[in-house]
Amino acid sequence: MKASRVAQLEPKKKCCRKKTRCVRCPVVIMRMKRLEHEGLGGKELAKRLKMARAA
User: Fold this and answer.
1) Is 1 a residue whose pLDDT tops 80?
2) Which letter does DSSP use for residue 55 in this model?
3) pTM of the predicted model as reported, rounded to 2 decimal places
4) DSSP state letter for 51
5) How far apart are CA 37 and CA 39, in angstroms?
6) d(CA 29, CA 34)
7) 5-27: string of b/e by CB count within 10 Å (b at 16+)?
8) CA angle 34, 39, 29 (to 5 degrees)
């Protein structure tokens, strides 16, 4: 999945809190929306997606 499309996904109802968060996790989607709003894109956005899922 492309990092730019994650912000438009529908989040799950509840976070599973696993070590590597899933793409539809509400926390990941919230962070990606914030980054997209700041104007990040491309490779930087993909790098930040990895960081958001690892947290």
Assistant:
1) no
2) -
3) 0.84
4) H
5) 5
6) 9
7) ebbeeeeeeeeeeeeebebebee
8) 30
Q: Where does the pLDDT of residue 4 fall: very low under 50, low under 70, confident under 90, or very high at 90 and above?
A: confident
Structure tokens belonging to residue 1: 């999945």
Cα dihedral 50→32→23→54 (10° resolution): 30
Q: Are 28 and 2 in contact (CB under 8 A)?
A: no
Q: What percent of the chain has pLDDT over 70?
A: 100
User: Residue 5 is which amino acid?
Assistant: R
Cβ atoms within 10 A of the Cβ of 4, count? 15
Query: Using CA atoms, how far apart are residues 23 and 55, in angstroms rounded to an integer?
Result: 12
In contact, 3 and 32? CB cutoff 8 Å: yes
CB of 42 closer than 8 Å to CB of 54: no
